[in-house]
Specification:
The complex is a heterodimer.
Chain A lengths: L1 H11 L4 E8 L10 E4 L5 E3 L5 E6 L4 E5 L6 E4 L6 E5 L10 E4 L2 E4 L7 E5 H4 L7 H5 L6 E5 L8 E5 L12 E4 L2 E2 L12 E7 L2 H4 L10 E6 L5 E16 L8 H10 L8 H8 L6 H5 L3 E14 L2 E13 L6 E15 L3 E15 L9 H6 L21 H5 L7 H5 L5 E20 L2 E20 L17 E24 L3 E24 L22 E23 L3 E12 L8 E12 L12 E15 L10 E3 L12 E4 L2 E4 L2 E4 L8 E14 L4 E20 L9 E23 L8 E17 L6 E2 L4 E2 L7 E3 L2 E4 L5 H6 L7 E3 L20 E4 L5 E11 L2 E11 L2 E4 L4 H4 L44 E3 L2 E12 L2 H6 L4 E15 L14 E2 L18 E3 L6 E11 L1
Parallel strand pairs in A: 1-7, 13-16, 46-51
Antiparallel strand pairs in A: 1-4, 2-3, 2-5, 5-6, 8-9, 10-15, 11-12, 13-14, 15-16, 17-18, 17-52, 18-19, 19-20, 20-21, 21-22, 22-23, 23-24, 24-25, 25-26, 26-27, 27-28, 28-29, 29-34, 30-33, 31-32, 34-35, 35-36, 36-37, 37-44, 38-39, 40-43, 41-42, 44-45, 45-48, 46-47, 48-49, 49-52, 50-51
Chain B lengths: L1 H19 L19 H18 L3 H8 L5 E3 L12 H7 L10 H20 L7 H26 L26 H22 L13 H17 L7 H14 L1 H4 L7 H4 L10 E5 L26 H4 L33 E3 L1 H7 L8 H5 E2 L1 E3 L13 E5 L3 H7 L13 E3 L22 E2 L18 E5 H14 L3 H15 L7 H11 L9 H12 L5 H7 L3 H8 L18 H6 L14
Helix pairs in contact in B: 2-5, 2-6, 5-6, 6-7, 6-8, 7-8, 8-9, 8-16, 9-16, 16-17, 16-19
Classes of the chains: A mainly beta, B mainly alpha.
Chain lengths: 1037, 604
């Protein structure tokens, strides 16, 4: 209020001019939060997110422009000056920028490790539901692979490949300095000011036992000094299925069915449809428009060293199928307050509630029917009623998945499929300046998360078919889980420059973190009436099948750490960093809990050397080198203990081992895992070499980085032979793995604007590759097909028969030698004989690693253009090389290419005597005499280039802004998931080359797909991706 | 002021450091270790787990197929696919193109050794368990019986299997053992049988005489039965001992001759033995239990799923022909009166269909001998109303007992009007050849096993939920007869078999004199009629569809002979080495050995 008044008072003085414009920083982009002040007065404003400002001044006064990391600039006001675009030069070349590092910040020119920053304005270039999508293709070394098309769905994030077989390869997530146990999905992308990606050991060793997978430091927005300002960012978008699944038309369906083994003819409904020329496109009938909308409002300000910010957000997304949506509410506040001269305190609170509907059993449920139901059957009868069971065979009409998916559209949904998450993350800090250069800081973080999963599937009642429970009664379940955790960190920081040349910074830390979670689940059937849903499970009918399923679980872990880091810089040219950390973890067995980590790095700012002064084209040149050790927490709580429990591995509502003697029901306890007191972490040693450069007046800036990482003591879950008497796998620290790669980042300002309204054109490019190779498993063992592990190959290796094509008619004699007929799958006979030569039989000896899922090269390209008020950007993302595992093409995984004539099929090109296809076999009883040949139909080339988004924005002119007294208004239009520019898979009935999940998603598991947390990325039958057209606005008042 | 700052700082750090080291100790609330088995409740729950483990092996499709397909009795039907692997497993089994990667062989392999190890552990923990000695003795009898039975079941399919799981023969293993103790299969098979017989012998001495009337806990009766079976199996193997058949005879007749003591007796009517809701009848010595209709108690999470990770009785559907496609009253009609599946008839999943041997040989006499009708469903009631049929009331079609009956009712011979309003399908129209399609006549309908019909399951497509019979007194008679025959006492064998023949003629509608008259037509009159092949035929008549035919033939060395004779799908390919199933590929993949292939059974 005081600040507002000050503004008003100031405004009443004699400033007759309003100067509006834009502050432009590196790369030609608008600089947010740049300070614009009138020299010698108290008047000042800060620029908006796009760099736009507007300030009142008088003729003859001087405007001062400044921004963190940039050289200040002064411009004199003249009466003719109304529009002003000011370009600021980077301080200390580009290296004056400050980046967030673990437990502190550093000038970029002092950084000796591998750190990439993705700033707010870049994150905003693609309107997204979550941060992981915003990060895809945006930073070298950061691989983001989509694993879900669900609203609010996830992605697999890997920094420089993977290094653990059984443990998590997810990077450590640190939010505002405190390790965050939630997921990126819990963070509103609009709250984020920057994301730093720590890649090498020098940068991550301070996170010790959790640093090996890289670290994502997420920093949220905070208040800044200046008058209170109100910002609104929001958009609304409408989407459609980017590409429907190609299936056979009714003519093609009949052709396939007639050639297949199907012998039961057409059902009466099909015969009637055929006579009418029926060709039902079930997908077309089912797909709706999707919707996405986001609204964020924040107020911030600050004065006298104390800043504040309050904000709230609302996000909602629906998909193209009924019953799936995602909503998120966020609320946050950040306060930094100065108490006296020596003390600073602050807090941040980030709260969100998200509600996902349809993610448990509704999602994807109609898809199989939409693909497989008969195109010959009309969707509605002559009275306009839904045809209940529009299948082409009696089995499915009688089956449990019998009903038409159209019921999903018409049903006033009686089902409930809801996941509600609440997460509150709060951090407090206090900082005390003890003596000059010495600071003590305490950070305390507390987080609490609650998740509530509710499900209700209504009963199938005559006249009211239940899509989900054909011929069954209703069923309901509720699950409640909570996780709480705290972190306390004590930091001592000493930062001083001696004799103007020796810059010393020491950071010491003692911290403790503890986390506990537990959950309870209850399921009940025969609920008295559908309207009760899951709200009171005791209201149920006592019938024979009336049963209650209960499950629950608890887990707790703690981590205690000590850390010390010393940075030393001489003359700003020669830099060194030494890091030590000691971690003790509860997850390990007693006597085996503590481990030490070291890292060292050197940097050399070559451009500052005298001998470089004459080379004017080179503005920046820095060489960095680092080496160090980290590990990852690949062991779960209680994993070192042997487990005995009552789980029968069946899962679902019958997952408890039971038996009965007559009517007496008893339970049984089995041995699940062996005890394992020797478990320890997996240690990764990384060498990193990097060069940062800026040339041609920093018009081209970039980084080239190379690394070699070797991971030892890899926890390897040996799949013990079942004859060992304990089912499941046994973890041991025996493996070795290597990752190496090169990363290249280039930021260019190809056309710099000649005038403030002039044309500018810039591009950011990142390209990288990572080679992953398993070096050692267990002794001399080179293959463990049971665990999909192959020494000398990548962790994503595909081990299978090699499909050569389809046996052609003129190969009948050769085919017969393999017991095959023309039209069946032709597999490579590679080995099996005594000398390892082909033996004329297809046996398991013919399986080998003939490829993997890794990209040979991947990266992203962002193009930006601006002219007058318009700005344009587009983001491309691509991967070259590697294979895709498409389970929708594996006949017995998705049952969409079985081609036995019972159901419609993906529109693949199958072999017939007159159609010598080499892709799919002839529809017949046996597609190969080899029982496990069918997975070979699911491998496709994985290369693709996608145009992820196209954005066009318009910044309103200052005249117009003045009329509505706004600081800045930008309207924009975006198309995301705009186009697949290149993808071989796309041409082979794949609808999208990105994954839809991990592990086997099929009914039948092909057996060579890695499951679990490090599961292979696979394509299954899920809600297809949308192409969304979005209108949005960024308004600052 | 400054000093206070330092003091505060120091205090904070020290307090935190001291208070927190205790945080590194794990104190789980919900995780048990093997010590749990040393408590009375844990010990008991361990025994329950051993019982429950058999649910994987008796009922689910993989195990049903393994014991059924590619025999003289059954071949694969029109949908020879297996739910677990998604492959045409049963086609491969039926044609003897089976390879070690086929999923269906995994069921007994993957589901036995963990129970065997648990049994080893329980035996070792028993002295520490605080239970009354008598209770412990009974539990030990159960544990050792089940360990033996897991082994007996395994070796009948795979030959020798490890006794040493990593910590020594029959020792509880807690080592991450990656080897595969199956090198000298000759010596190992001998040890396997020795262990089995010792365990079963212990069980015959320490189990209660009889099972509870309404439950299937293990008893001496089933222990003797299984001991007889073990001796007979060994007698046909290279591990045979000279007195195996004698001992088998003694064990089997112990039960037969003391039926009152052991609480067992034959049912009057064969059809009652497997009749729904008569699961606890006196003839059944032991079944793997389930509670009809109770999915949770039966550990069925996906009742309409097939195979794979399940403990339900897939056998209830696997043998069903496609009754939902049969047209009536004539083949040319458009009405399909049973087009809706019924709970009783089950899901016509069409995995296994009988070979012609069933009709032409084993059950050649379907009139005097009631066992055909006690084994197969012959009458189907309409399930949809229309075309002159009323659902649940009218007979839709029957699978006639003989061509003559069909011709007569159909007015073919003697020529005349049809005598019935429903369709009468003659045996000559039955569909019998593996995997072929019969779109015209019976539309993939063949005689379907009725022994697993379950009126108490919830939905037609569901797996069955009845106890699965493992041992019944009639088989004890057959084991005794076989032992007698092979010990040179064919007359005793004949007498034992005639007991079953006498029972077989019983039908409720027949008078005692009619029964005797029929018995005279089918009984054995000369001991020379009793041969091993005859006993195998008789086993079909008593045990058809009970999922043990394949091992019954294999352990007796009769598989190749009889498949070549009776099963046209298997005949071209079946070879001697097929008498053992392959060791599953996953076992070899997981075995750490330079040459895992050496552990494979010969021929694969």
């Amino acid at each position: 209020m005081v600040l507002l008044l000050t503004g008003v008072v100031n405004a009443t003085q004699a400033q007759d001019l309003t100067i509006a414009g834009k502050v432009i920083g590196a790369g030609g982009v608008g600089l947010s939060s740049a300070s614009v002040a009138v020299k010698g007065t108290q008047r000042g404003v800060t620029s908006s997110q796009d760099g736009v400002f507007s300030i009142k001044a008088s003729d003859g006064e001087t405007l001062m422009f400044s921004a963190v990391g940039y050289l200040p600039k002064e411009i004199k006001v003249t009466s003719s000056l109304t529009t002003l675009n000011v370009e600021l030069q980077l301080r200390d070349q580009q290296l004056g920028e400050v980046v967030v590092v673990g437990y502190g910040t550093q000038r970029k020119r002092d950084v000796t490790g591998a750190v990439v920053s993705v700033k707010e304005n870049e994150l905003r270039e693609v309107p997204v539901a979550n941060l992981q999508q915003a990060l895809q293709g945006r930073a070298a070394g950061l691989e983001v692979q989509r694993t879900s098309n669900q609203p609010g769905g996830g992605a697999q994030i890997r920094i420089r490949g993977i290094r653990s077989i059984s443990g998590s390869n997810d990077p450590l997530l640190v939010l505002d300095g405190i390790p965050y146990e939630g997921t990126l999905n819990d963070i509103n992308p609009d709250d984020v000011a920057s994301v730093e990606i720590l890649k090498d050991a020098s940068a991550t060793a301070i996170y010790g036992s959790r640093g090996a997978n890289g670290v994502l430091l997420v920093t949220t927005k905070r208040g800044k000094a200046g008058e209170p300002r109100i910002s609104y960012n929001g958009y609304y978008g409408v989407g459609q299925v980017a590409n429907p699944f190609p299936v056979y038309s009714s003519t093609e369906y009949q052709a396939m069915r007639d050639i297949s083994t199907w012998g039961q003819g057409y059902l009466p409904s099909e015969v009637s449809g055929r006579s009418k020329g029926q060709n039902t496109d079930w997908q077309d009938l089912m797909y709706e428009n999707s919707m996405r909308t986001d609204h964020n409002l924040s107020v911030s300000g600050g004065s006298g060293g104390s800043n504040w910010m309050l904000g709230g957000g609302y996000y909602k997304e629906t998909t193209v199928l009924p019953g799936e949506d995602f909503t998120r509410f966020t609320l946050r506040a950040a306060i930094d307050a100065k108490v006296g001269k020596r003390i600073k305190v602050g807090m941040t609170t980030l709260n969100n509630v998200s509600i996902a509907n349809g993610s448990q059993f509704v999602s994807g449920s109609p898809l199989f029917r939409m693909m497989a139901m008969s195109p010959l059957v009309a969707p509605y009868d002559s009275l306009g009623n839904i045809v209940p069971t529009p299948w082409g065979n009696i089995d499915d009409i009688n089956g449990s998945g019998r009903y038409s998916p159209l019921y999903l559209q018409t049903d006033d949904p009686e089902w409930v499929d809801r996941v509600r998450r609440l997460r509150t993350f709060n951090s407090l800090y206090g900082e005390l300046d003890i003596i000059d250069g010495l600071k003590y800081r305490i950070n305390a973080g507390f987080s609490y998360a609650q998740q509530h999963n509710a499900q209700f599937q209504p009963a199938d009642i005559v006249g009211k078919p239940s899509f989900f429970r054909a011929a069954q009664g209703n069923i309901a379940s509720v699950e409640n889980g909570e996780t709480w955790g705290y972190t306390v960190e004590n930091l001592l920081v000493y930062d001083k420059t001696f004799k103007e040349r020796h810059k010393v910074n020491f950071t010491g830390l003692y911290s403790i973190q503890e986390n506990q979670s537990f959950s309870n689940y209850v399921q009940k059937d025969s609920i008295a009436d559908n309207f009760v849903q899951f709200y009171n499970l005791s209201l149920s009918t006592p019938v024979n099948s009336n049963n209650t399923t209960l499950t629950g679980g608890e887990s707790r872990w703690a981590l205690i750490s000590y850390m010390g880091r010393l940075n030393y810089g001489f003359d700003n040219k020669y830099l060194a960093t030494l890091t030590y950390r000691r971690d003790g973890s509860s997850r390990l067995a007693k006597g085996n809990q503590w481990f030490d980590y070291w890292a060292a790095s050197l940097g050399w700012n070559i451009a500052d050397e005298n001998f470089m002064k004459n080379i004017r084209q080179i503005n920046t040149l820095k060489l960095r080198m680092s080496y160090g050790t980290t590990s990852n927490q690949a062991i779960n709580p209680y994993q070192s203990l042997g487990l005995v429990n009552n789980s029968n591995g069946i899962g679902g509502n019958a997952g408890i081992t039971r038996y009965n003697f007559g009517p007496t029901i008893v339970s049984g306890y089995n041995i699940i895992t062996l005890p394992n007191p020797d478990l320890s972490w997996e240690f990764t040693n990384v060498t990193n070499v990097g060069v940062d450069f800026g040339i041609f007046n920093n018009r081209l800036t970039g980084t080239i980085e190379a690394y070699w990482a070797k991971t030892n003591d890899i926890l390897y879950g040996i799949n013990l032979p079942v004859t060992s008497g304990v089912a499941g796998s046994y973890l041991t620290n025996i493996g070795e793995m290597e990752n190496n790669g090169i990363e290249f980042t280039l930021s260019s300002q190809i056309v710099r604007p000649k005038s403030p309204d002039g044309f500018s054109f810039g591009a950011d490019l990142n390209l990288f590759y990572n080679n992953n190779k398993l070096l050692k498993l267990n002794g001399s063992i080179t293959e463990q097909p049971g665990s999909q592990l192959f020494v000398g190959h990548s962790m994503t290796a595909i081990w299978d028969y090699k499909k050569l094509g389809i046996w052609q008619a003129n190969e009948a004699t050769e085919a017969a030698r393999y017991g095959s007929l023309p039209g069946q799958i032709k597999l490579q006979d590679r080995s099996g004989g005594a000398d390892g030569k082909p033996d004329g039989r297809i046996t398991v000896a013919d399986k080998y690693v003939w490829g993997d899922q890794d990209a040979d090269l991947q990266g992203g390209l962002t193009l930006r253009m601006a002219y007058k008020g318009f700005d344009f950007s587009s983001v491309l993302y691509g991967r070259i090389g590697g294979y895709i595992i498409s389970q929708i093409h594996q006949p017995f995984a998705a049952y969409l290419t079985v081609m036995d004539g019972r159901r419609n099929t993906l529109a693949v090109d199958y072999w017939t005597p007159t159609n010598p296809s080499n892709w799919f076999p002839m529809p017949q009883a046996q597609i190969s005499p080899v029982s496990d040949a069918w997975p070979t139909l699911g491998y496709y080339e994985g290369s693709f280039v996608k145009l992820r988004s196209i954005n066009l924005g318009y910044n309103f002119s200052k005249d117009w802004l003045k009329r509505i007294s706004a600081r800045s208004v930008r309207l924009y239009f975006t198309i995301d998931n705009a186009a697949v520019l290149f993808s071989p898979f796309f041409d082979q009935t794949g609808i999208d080359p990105e994954g839809t999940g991990t592990g086997s998603q099929g009914v039948s598991n092909p057996g060579n797909i890695r499951g679990g947390g490090n599961g292979s990325i696979t394509i299954g039958l899920t809600t297809p991706p949308r192409r969304t057209f979005t209108f949005g606005a960024n308004i600052t008042l | 002021m400054r000093k206070i700052h330092y003091l505060l700082l120091l205090t904070t750090i020290i307090v935190l450091a001291v208070a927190c080291t205790k945080k590194l100790e794990e104190e789980p609330y919900t995780v048990f270790s093997v010590d749990y088995y040393k408590t009375p409740g844990g010990f008991e729950n361990g025994v329950n787990a051993l019982y429950s483990g058999f649910r994987f092996i008796f009922g689910p499709e993989g195990a049903v197929g393994l014991g059924t397909v590619g025999t003289d009795e059954f071949t694969y039907a029109e949908q020879p696919r297996n739910g677990a692997g998604g492959t045409q497993d049963f086609l491969a089994m039926g044609r003897y193109t089976l390879d070690p990667a086929v999923g269906s062989i995994l069921t007994p392999w993957n589901r036995s050794f963990n129970s065997i190890n648990l049994a080893n552990g329980l035996i070792e923990f028993e002295p520490e368990v605080n239970l009354p000695p008598s209770a412990k003795t009974t539990y030990l009898g159960e544990i050792r019986f089940m360990r033996a039975f897991y082994y007996l079941n395994l070796i009948q399919f795979f030959g020798a299997v490890p006794l040493d799981l990593g910590s020594g023969d029959l020792k509880f293993n807690q080592q991450p053992f990656q080897g595969f103790n199956r090198k000298d299969t000759v010596a190992l098979l001998k040890s396997n049988y020795d262990a089995i017989i010792q365990d079963l012998d212990f069980a015959t001495k320490n189990l209660p005489d009889r099972r509870p009337a309404g439950a299937f806990r293990l008893s001496k009766a089933v222990a003797y039965h299984m001991l007889a079976k073990a001796y007979i199996h060994r007698a046909y193997s290279f591990a045979r001992q000279p007195d195996d058949f004698t001992k088998a005879y003694a064990a089997a007749t112990e039960v037969i001759n003391n039926q009152a003591k052991y609480g067992t007796a034959l049912q009057t009517f064969y059809a009652d033995v497997h009749r729904p809701r008569n699961d606890y009848n006196s003839e059944i010595l032991w079944s793997i239990e389930r509670i009809p209709g109770n999915l949770i108690a039966n550990e069925i999470s996906n009742p309409s799923g097939i195979g794979g990770n399940t403990k339900g009785v897939d056998a209830a559907n696997d043998f069903c022909g496609d009754y939902t496609a049969v047209r009536a009253p004539l083949n040319s009609s458009t009405t399909v009166p049973v087009s809706t599946r019924t709970v009783l008839y089950g899901r016509p999943i069409r995995r296994f269909c009988p070979t012609p041997y069933i009709i032409n040989n084993a059950f050649a006499d379907r009139v005097n001998d009631s066992r055909y009708e006690g084994t197969f469903r012959t009458v189907y009631i309409a399930s949809t109303t229309g075309g002159g049929f009323t659902a649940s009331v009218d007979t839709a079609f029957v699978m006639a007992l003989s061509n003559r009956i069909a011709d007569s009712l159909n007015g073919v011979q003697p020529a005349g009007p049809r005598l019935k309003p429903y369709r009468v399908i003659a045996p000559r129209e039955f569909y019998f050849s593996g995997g072929s399609i019969d779109p015209a006549v019976t539309r993939n309908m063949y005689p379907s096993i009725s022994k697993y019909e379950d009126p108490d399951k919830i939905e037609a497509n569901n797996q069955g939920t009845r106890p699965f019979v493992v041992a019944k007194l009639s088989e004890t008679y057959l084991l005794a007869a076989e032992a007698a025959l092979n010990s040179g006492n064919a007359t005793a064998a004949m007498d034992l078999i005639n007991v079953l023949k006498r029972r077989a003629v019983n039908r409720p509608e027949l008078s005692e004199s009619q029964r005797v008259a029929r018995y005279d037509l089918i009984k054995l009159t000369s001991s020379s009629q009793v041969t091993l092949d005859f006993i195998l035929d008789e086993r079909t008549r008593e045990l058809c569809g009970e999922c043990s035919r394949w091992p019954d033939l294999a352990v007796r060395g009769k598989l190749v002979d009889r498949v070549k004779l009776y099963n046209t799908d298997g005949a071209p390919n079946v070879k001697d080495f097929h008498g053992r199933r392959p060791i599953p590929q996953s076992q070899l993949n997981n075995t750490v050995d330079p040459n895992p292939a050496q552990y494979q059974n010969p021929g694969y």
